[in-house]
Design brief:
The complex is a heterodimer of chains A (288) and B (180).
Chain A: H1 4-27, H2 35-78, H3 82-112, E1 116-125, E2 133-136, E3 149-152, E4 155-163, E5 168-172, E6 179-184, E7 194-198, E8 206-211, E9 222-225, E10 237-246, E11 253-259, E12 268-274
Antiparallel strand pairs in A: 1-2, 1-12, 2-5, 3-4, 3-12, 4-5, 6-7, 6-9, 7-8, 8-11, 9-10, 10-11
Chain B: H1 12-36, H2 45-57, H3 59-76, H4 83-98, H5 108-132, H6 139-170
The chains are: A alpha+beta (288), B mainly alpha (180).
Chain lengths: 288, 180
């Protein structure tokens, strides 16, 4: 006969598993956060997170500079010895030039954009490899709301998933929970609307699917948001078509899209606070 | 809550020290590591921390640490509450059970335990993603591209982390609890 204490343990373990599964089920959509703990953690740790992320970026930059410096040092040994001491300065100037160019581009984008944009800094990224989310340093106290679109001058990044007072979580386009209604910029045929979502297996690419077999699409075409659904403004660049083909059933067309945004090197983004578009009621979570 | 000397319960100090380190690790993982390892696998330091402590303290305390650590991860990055909680509890439970027959003063045992616990953790995550959102990876792709690289990373990092935790434990850093 089985020891009753073993049964007790089994029932306890199964109970905990069931409880956690129910928790996941009830919190995954609207994400009912444990407000006090969550607000406390995310609000007060946002500056710390910002500091550590800047430290991380600085370290990456440092190593990049270190490798560049090492390379130039080897060259300089052959050419002139005195140039080696100036290489560091050159690297710093180049880095500042790059930063200047990037910030100018962002400023230009903000000034010429038709939308009301809020600049924000990326302070964290989901480290689990299973989800594609980033944390930014703007939250509800800055006017950020759930589902707002997030963009860069290069194109569409994703949308706001969760908001806390001083930070927000952004669901990237590359996450499998995100799907965006899109069209081809060249043809702009209303019938050629498809869905762009994270590509299985390949993090780098997006999958543009559900296109009619006669859709006018070819490699090199630029894919833009269609504006359907009301989350994303129409015309935001998503990426460039790399290859086209039929889906596994041979009924619909699909394409592999290289995103215009480099999701691995996101540092600054813009939140679209407002755009001239009528919102559509009753849309489904995670899909336009 | 008061401090306990029994081998079944952790003191308040142990919980607080664990939570403090878990938060620091999550901050480093989300900010520093995600920029440092911008392409490819990011090691899960929190998992190594939880699994190593579960190895030292046994499955009962390990499950509690997995629960707290996973819950914190869910608050920071999780797609839902309970997601990483369940995965970290499973990994800690596995580690705690496996430590029964392995010497704790040598690093090879915990290295293998962390290696295998990573598979347990990632398998639970893979299954939960599949149940709730649908997997974008096939199982074998995930095994090859996520499970294995992460487990190898963790195997190497355990060589650095476990001796520190073992020494901390010997000096009763976490709490004045007694062990077999």
């Amino acid at each position: 006969m089985v020891n009753p204490s073993i049964w007790k343990k089994i029932v306890t373990v199964l109970g905990v598993i069931l409880l956690l599964l129910l928790l996941i089920y009830f919190t995954e959509g609207n994400y009912l956060r444990v407000t006090i703990v969550d607000d406390l953690l995310l609000t007060y740790l946002t500056p710390v997170q910002g500091f550590i992320s800047r430290l991380g970026l600085g370290t990456v930059g440092f190593f990049q500079e270190l490798f560049a410096f090492h390379h130039s040092q080897q060259e300089n040994r052959v050419l002139k010895e005195e140039l080696a001491s100036r290489e560091n300065l050159r690297g710093l100037v180049l880095e500042l030039q790059k930063e200047n160019y990037r910030l100018r581009k962002m400023l230009d984008f903000r000034e010429h954009s038709a939308y009301e944009l809020l600049p924000s800094e990326v302070i964290a990224r989901d480290p689990s490899n299973w989800f594609e989310t980033i944390t930014i340093n703007k939250g509800s106290q800055h006017g950020v709301k759930k589902n707002m679109a997030v963009v860069t001058p290069e194109g569409l990044v994703g949308n706001i998933l969760n908001v806390s007072p001083s930070s927000s979580q952004v669901l990237l386009l590359t996450d499998s929970r995100r799907a965006v209604s899109a069209i081809v910029m060249r043809s702009r045929e209303p019938g050629d609307i498809g869905i762009v979502e994270g590509s299985s297996g390949e993090n780098v690419y997006l999958k543009f699917s559900n296109l009619p077999p006669e859709a006018n699409i070819q490699p090199g075409d630029i894919v833009i948001s269609s504006g359907l659904g009301g989350i994303f403004p129409k015309g935001l660049v998503i990426g460039t078509v790399q290859e086209t083909g039929l889906d596994q059933y041979g009924l619909l067309q699909q394409a592999l899209v290289l995103p215009s945004v480099n999701f691995n090197r996101l540092e600054e983004v813009f939140i679209v606070l407002e755009f001239p578009f009528k919102e559509v009621e009753g849309e489904e979570e995670g899909e336009e | 809550m008061t401090a306990h000397n029994s081998s079944d319960k952790l003191s308040l100090k142990a919980y607080l020290v664990f939570i403090f380190f878990a938060v620091i690790i999550l901050l480093i993982e989300g900010s520093f590591f995600s920029f440092l390892f911008s392409r490819g696998t990011i090691p899960d330091l929190l998992l190594i921390f939880v699994v190593c402590l579960a190895f030292l303290w046994g499955e009962k305390k390990g499950i509690v640490l997995g629960l707290i650590g996973g819950f914190l991860q869910d608050l920071f990055f999780g797609p839902a509450i309970g997601f990483f909680t369940l995965a970290k509890m499973a990994a800690a439970c596995f580690s705690g059970f496996s430590s029964r027959e392995i010497y704790k003063d040598q690093v090879i045992g915990p290295m293998l335990t962390v290696f295998l616990s990573t598979f347990v953790h990632e398998f639970v995550v893979f299954s939960l993603v599949g149940i709730f959102w649908g997997n974008r990876f096939s199982f074998f792709f995930a095994l090859d591209q996520i499970f294995l690289p992460k487990a190898l990373y963790h195997l190497v990092l355990t060589i650095l982390i476990y001796p520190l935790l073992y020494q901390a434990e010997q000096r009763r850093f976490f709490s004045p609890v007694s062990y077999k």
